[in-house]
Specification:
The complex is a heterodimer. By secondary structure, chain A is of the alpha/beta class. Chain A folds into five domains: 5-134, Rossmann fold (3-Layer(aba) Sandwich); 144-235 and 312-327 and 489-555, FAD/NAD(P)-binding domain (3-Layer(bba) Sandwich), CATH 3.50.50.60; 246-302, no CATH class; 332-487, FAD/NAD(P)-binding domain (3-Layer(bba) Sandwich), CATH 3.50.50.60; 563-625, Alpha-Beta Plaits (2-Layer Sandwich). Chain A contains 17 helices and 34 strands. Classes of the chains: A alpha/beta, B alpha/beta.
Chain lengths: 642, 439
Amino acid sequence: MKTKIGVYICHCGGNISDYVDVKKVREAVKDIEGVEISLDTMFACADSSQKQISDDVAEKGLDGLVVASCSPKLHYPTFSACAERGGLNKYNYVHANIREQVSWAHSDNKEAATEKAIKIVKAAIARVKESAALEPIEIKAQKSIAVLGAGVAGMRAAKELADLGIQVYLIEREHFTGGRVSQLDYLCGADITGKELVTHLYEKIHEHPNVTLFTGAEVIEKGGSIGNFKIKVKITPRFIKKECNPEELKKAIEVCPVEVEDDFNFNITKRKAIYKNYDSEYPQIPTIDNKNCTRCGECEKVCSSIDFSQKEEILDLTVGSILAATGFDPYQPKDGEFGWGIGNVVTLPQFRRIINMCDDKLIYKGKEIKDIAYIYCVGSRQVDGDNKYCSRYCCTATLYTSILTHKKYKGINSYHFNRGIRTYGKQEVIYDEASRLGDIFLQSYEYDPPVVEKVNGKTNVKIEDILTGGREIEVDADLVVLVTGMEPRNDCTIGDVLKIPKGRDRFYNEIHMKLRPVETVIDGITIAGACQGPKNIMESMNSALSAAAKSYSIVNKGELALEPIIAKVDKKTCIWCGKCAEACPYDAIEMIKENGKEIAEINASVCKGCGMCLPVCESNSIDMDGFTDVEIESMISVLAES
Amino acid sequence: MQDNQKIKEYDALVIGAGIAGGEAALNLANLGNKVLLIDKDLTVGGKMIMLSKVFPTLDCSACITTPKVSEIARHSNITVLTSTEASDIIQKDDGTFEALITTQPRYVVVEDCTGCQLCEEACPVNVEDEYQYGLAGRKAAFIPFSIASPRAAAIDIENCTLCGACERACPTHCIDFTQTEEKYTISCKTVVAATGFQLFDPTLIPRYGFGRFKNVITSMQMERQLAPTRPFNTVLRPSDGKMPDNIAYILCTGSRDKTVGTPICSQVCCMYSTKQAQLLMGALPMADITLYYLHIRAFGKGFNEFYAQAQSMGVEFVKGKVAKITEKEDGNLILRYEDINTGKVTETEHDMVVLSVGILPNEGITGLFTNRKLELDPFNYVSQSSPLESPAMTTVDGVFVAGTASGPMDIPDSILSAGAASSEAANYIRKVSQNKVTV
């Protein structure tokens, strides 16, 4: 039982004290048995307050500490560190949340809020009295990291980690590296093309002794935990030998009779079942599209490099951290959405491929294109649909595309049907340049989007234009470009395997946008690039490098101290019914035999302290360190007092 | 700090202790590097520590900044020096750097100051408080603000009359007028430039009347009125101390405006104005808030949803550039603008106007380097030599840029940019340590 407890109650600069009478809370708890010191403070988290708390712990020899402030999500680590600095075991610290749970929730009733705050602080004091000192669990951490996705973000992170001396497994689902950026040619704000950027990054990781690249590879299972993730990687065969003959392979592609939609070109062209997306693509070896190959054997006749005997492989890897850079998918318009389905309506990614294929004249489906209508925010900022978010990159990308068409072809007229151009920051100059090139901007009302229709053989775009005071304006376009936004990957199997939580926008969620922007709630798994939310290349790189630094900091020491808040089995009373093992979502519980008796054993480095095993244990043989039955019951009795 | 002939050695010198510099320093320190973090101001935390709540989550800014600031102050691998600047930075042949560090006297022994504020009470000199952006006064002996780090007094020697009242009042005798400027050289393996931004000076747009019309304030002044460490504990208009009930925001004040030399967008004003509008609806439930804008740039994660939320709360968004403001006798203001939605030139009266001022690069960073040229971009931000591949890289090998020193950005982007800078700086330190750098 603790006899020297320090209690600190935070005003949170008004966030709490505007609704909770902090002084009254202090009055109510100051004479509780065991409370040595009780104070209120403007900002408990401020450096000076933290110093006072840790000084008090040291000087007064406090044996328990309670800080009543905001959510423990934000400041539990702050104050438990204060306890530690003062010489108190950090598990003798209990956090009371009187902001999110009290002042913010009950701003309409100050008296009741104060009452509730008193109860919560009293309960925390009751719990701290029963708290036990715990020591962290030391484990070894693998000095290796799995980077998922070999787009530009993944490759960049892999290079950085490899340079820092970490063994990197770069795992790419496709048979080629480069992700979405390889589908772009000219890049806004750079003098290199997307393919050149990809090539450059590829060369760096390819030569690097610390990087092992797997293409056609997918993580299908994840076990273990931070420091020691055990992943299973499924590698699908290319059906082409590593030592291949490029000339013969060219012939093999020629003779392949199978033609399918080319998804690299967003289905505006066809490709063979044996293919490479573009000449300089890496790895340089083509692949056979197993789904569409008919095994007719034509390619084998002309090429000795074909090898249909290659089998799928499953690889087991152990890594200290996982960095997910799995990218995005462009939004796919629905039938009829802004004229989607009309022959000359394409998406922006398709249009970029078309520009790449047309040299001096812009031709689509045999017709020369002069008048181009861009419709913005397709699949973004939806009024009716689910995608409420802005895709961030598209305004600039579209204006840049328009500038490209002016530079490459003569006589282009661009009409931008937008919803307010968002060329933030320095990208403003792109907007300026497009305006000076004579592009026409028309802006629709929020709930009144432009209409695309086929009228007398022409594709007509109609808008009620804000910029001319609501006039109805029509344009007959040779080509309508739907500026499609970014969406989370449609196939997000990997997210499910890793159990990364998603936000309301369905992108992977970081823990805290400002405090921990590349970490996920799954310890040891970081996220980078557009899988976390729409980003341009530079922003993806920043997040990739940040995630690399974070993953590196997890593995670089080779050991980790884990939270000791885990389940414990009472060997005497356990009768091994197996229910705990069934309930455990982390496979942390196994049956062992001790002195001839079957009992449950908990793997300390895998147990996350979730508590799922506790309620199912019929003999009540499991208790949770840091949240023992005694602690919880002591809180309940205080809260139940009237 | 004593005058020490021996050159102090660090792995990294981080210039600027705002949120970006602080984040970069912490990352580097956590990877085992010795970091010298300097700031020319009296406190670390930069601009962010001054803010109220931050978009789009409405977290209290101080609640996010203070734990970082505290971690920085306490980290065994970080040395923090305030009132300190670097200059004469030389890069040597092995890729490492030497820099001259100059610390201005604070006239207070920080270790002995308890922050009791008795010196403040005793000081007879009243001057404008720059930390409250001129909304309130402070003494010449003062603590910058309650969550400053270090939370220690300083003497504003420019305004001090040397009356000695503070010295007599100080219970720990920590005031020391004999302190002088300190200069010494340090060596380091990498430099991170996190020199932040400055705010646009709205007196450059005379037609908005800032400085002449009392009820025209800047967005930073409004930010202070909404912050937990606010001067008045409510929102007041300056002319008569009344609570305003019809507030206008003029966006793009000093951004996207070639007439004042800023062609680019400041990237944060749309969102901070939308945020302030939401906070004002809480602080002044009866007030009408109108934002006059060109385009609302709600582009980041959760931003567009935040903008929609403001609209649904009743914040008025009017598309149109305000041409001119005139002041009425009662202090109210008439805004003249073309309402783009109707196409008509319109005049509207408000009782308070907030100018959403843009952000500008801080000057002087290039002059710090002697034998290397740190290039700037056309907008005078630190130039990124490889923005798509290594966004933190500058034109000087081994010098990395973090946060708004390379261009306007919001807090999440600044933190990611600092993450990138620390990652690349850590790698550079590693290379220098292995003698793999030749310059």
